[in-house]
Design a protein that fits this description.
280 residues, 11 helices, three-stranded antiparallel sheet, alpha+beta, ssDNA_annealing_RecT, 43% helix, two-stranded antiparallel ribbon
Length: 280
Amino acid sequence: MTETVTNAVAQRDNSPATMITTYKADLAQVMPSHVKPDQWVRLAVGVIRRDPKLAQAAANNPAAFMGALMDAAQKGLTPGTPEFYLTPRKRKGRLEVQGITGWQGLVELMHRAGAISSVVAEVVHEHDQFRYVPGRMDRPEHEIDWDAPDRGRMRLVYAYAVMKDGAVSKVVVLNRAQIDKIKAQSDGADSDFSPWRKWEESMWLKSAVRQLAKWIPTSSEYRREQLRAAQEVAAEQRHSAAPEPPPAGVDATTGEVVDEVIEGEIVDDWPPTATPPDSH
């Protein structure tokens, strides 16, 4: 469907706001059930109308613009926000729109999977106090002097999640050299429109959260585990609720003793007090 929509866009009205409203039904069809299409579309239109350069980039390549919107819609993230950036990016000499999932969007997707209760992600500056010893500490100790006029340049970034059972996930810590390597591999990192230039701290946070995401169960994994656990509990409850079989010779319904020779016949007098009649 995404390919059909983006191809059709190139042959229709190039007004970005019009494109969004025209394809509202197609966008809504791929959104998760918790997203409200009307509100989502209004926010997307507002972003385009407030940024003339972004609107021009969208008009230059409508298919790329709609592709970015479809990506945001499928993930259930709001475009033009820290969840999902819409940025002009120069390709073949002209601007077009590129969609980029922000670190807050990654955190939202982690929460939606259902396994975590919170995510902590912070940048450590030179004048901060930071200590973390893997294997001996379940999470970092990070102290910030909030009154300091300058915390210094960014030197580390870390992220971890607290699971719903209270356990702490793997702690991801990246230093400046690792961040520089990630940045060098990013497409258009040196562009004037790159989020690495406009929102450098956010990109540091995204780098750490993205690494953390590898250690957090996805929606399907978590749901499979929840289903398996629920099935095991149900099976255990069925087993524990099953009544013990009655002793031999006792009726399971009434609890009375049954004659073992004639099945189902109730013996009124037990134990027998008289000698059975002679069978001859």
